[in-house]
Model the fold of this input.
Amino acid sequence: MAERAEGRDLVPISGLLSYRLSRTSSAMSRSAALRYRREFDVSLGEWRAISLIAADPTLTLNRLARRAGLDKAQMSRVVSRLTERGLVDRTAGSGRTSQLALTGEGTRVYRGLISAANERDAEFLAALTPEEAATLSGALDKLADLALAVEERERAHPGDTAC
Done:
């Protein structure tokens, strides 16, 4: 990573932490998408929806979209595909909401997906020493907390209409 002498030197994009994290995350996601498509015929968005529903069977479409980081329309299309394939059931909830749950087949696919995800996770963690893995985990927690705080600060700027 580029050094910053007393905060005066500008770091090129390739040295910026957010850029490096984004590139790493994207590469990890692309390789996951390839494997999950090949082995389970699901997209990365479908994998995320399936795994989030498995983790919390009380999810509605809105809450699922927020947790997956997608807008409601995108998630609605994902859930519709999963429903058509017989992997997810929608049950009427209160008002205009619907509860989402994995079907028996959805649960079977989830078990295969989560096993593959755990294998991938172990492969990435094996590149680190136990100390490095612990340091990375703590650093990611700190960065995630700070990122949320910075996002809130940016949203509070008067006149901003981005996002």
Remarks:
- The CA atoms of residues 20 and 155 lie 24 Å apart.
- The chain has a mean pLDDT of 90.
